[in-house]
Amino acid sequence: MSINTVEHETILSDEALVRRCKEELPHVTSSFELLVARHMQRVYTLVYKIVNDHEEAEDLTQEVFLKVYRALPRFDMQCAFTTWLYRIATNTALDAMDRARRTRQQVIHLSRAVKHSQSAREPSEPPLSELPAREPLPEEQALRRELRECINRVLRRLDREQARVLLLRDLEDLSYEELAQVLQARLSAVKMRVHRARLAFKELFGEFCGKIYQVLSIAEQKEKRKKQGSNGKEISV
């Protein structure tokens, strides 16, 4: 393949590449490989925001594109390729999250039984948040990391549809019109879903992350005042 051919294929639109895939697959995969290269990082980022695990996100991203490869011949192109792709990606990641949640519940039930049998003999272990960090980290950096982890826990506590609309609307920055295509719903219904999902997130965030957020805000304010005081001293000199 010549350099000119590669450059031409690189600038082809998603729609043009999809049409070529429909004609060429499974015998020729070059157009599909271009689609994968173009959207791999975006899909990985979206999936990672749902599962919060790099290795699992990599595996699920591969699974997403395998599903796309198999389903492309049936893709009717009534919506943008990215809209269809994000639908597959979010469903794949949310399915994985549901499986993990069921497994986690089984582990929790087992661990509770073990802890109950040991409670009369051993003092309870401190929560992970109270354990010392393995490496010394600045307070603000540690709090930010803890807040990110807390936000991910809140997202996993939301129901499937609430998590999906928040991720696509507020994190992936899809428009309401694009979100309506992904969800295959009316625009008015989508706006209501987003509103309800934000309310649910806000309530859970306050319950589980409010204290962390408050401590982080205080730490940031202290650091800001410290810098302002330092700048003031430099100016006065």
TrEMBL record:
Q: Which Pfam families match?
A: Sigma70_r2, Sigma70_r4_2
Gene3D superfamilies linked: 1.10.1740.10, Winged helix-like DNA-binding domain superfamily/Winged helix DNA-binding domain
Q: Does the keyword Transcription apply?
A: yes
Q: Where is this region: Disordered?
A: 112-136
> What's an example Gene Ontology biological process for this entry?
response to stress
Q: Which GO terms describe its molecular function?
A: DNA binding; sigma factor activity
RNA polymerase sigma-70 region domain boundaries = 35-103
Signal peptide segment: none
Report keywords, A-Z.
DNA-binding, Sigma factor, Transcription, Transcription regulation
Describe the location of the RNA polymerase sigma factor 70 region 4 type domain by residue ranges.
Answer: 148-199
Q: Which NCBIfam families match?
A: sigma70-ECF
Q: Which family does it belong to?
A: Belongs to the sigma-70 factor family. ECF subfamily.
Give the protein's recorded name: RNA polymerase sigma factor
